[in-house]
Amino acid sequence: MEVVNAIGRRKAAVARVFVSEGTGKITINKCELEKYFPSSILQFIVKQPLAKLNVAEQYDIKINLDGGGFKGQSEAARLAISRALIKINPEDKPALRAEGFVTRDPRSVERKKPGRPKARKRFQFSKR
Length: 128
What we know:
- The protein has one domain (4-99): Ribosomal Protein S5, domain 2 (2-Layer Sandwich).
- The chain contains four helices and five strands, in the order E-E-E-E-H-H-E-H-H.
- It has helices at residues 33-36, 40-53, 70-88, 93-99; strands spanning 4-10, 13-21, 26-28, 31-32, 59-66.
- Helix 2 packs parallel to helix 3 (70-88).
- It starts with a strand and ends in a 29-residue tail after the last helix.
- The model has no long low-confidence stretch (mean pLDDT 92).
C-alpha cells in the first residue's frame, strides 16, 4: 500500500495526514502523539476513527498540524484521519458518518463588527 494523504480543518486549524501500513505509530509535527497532546481526552479524539474501525495497529500516521488551538487541532486531525481511512476503504464511510467523523464542523469565530467592542457585545448604555 502506498501512502494515502488527506486534509482536515476545524476553526483555524489545518491537519495534513499521511497514512501508511505500519504498527499504529502516530506522529504529529515530528513528535509522538502523547508528547504533542498530553491530555488523554485530545489523544482519544485523534484516535476515535481508528478505534471505531478497529484498525489502530494497522497503520502508521504522520500528521502536520498548523494553526488554531489544541482542541481545534485534535478535531482537524480526526477529520483528516477519517477522510484518509475512507480513501483506503470506501466501505468504512457509513460507519464513520454515523459517528459524525466525516462532517466538517463549519463553526468558526464570528468577525468583530464596527462600533462594538466584540462581535456581539455592545458598549455600556448610558441613559443620561
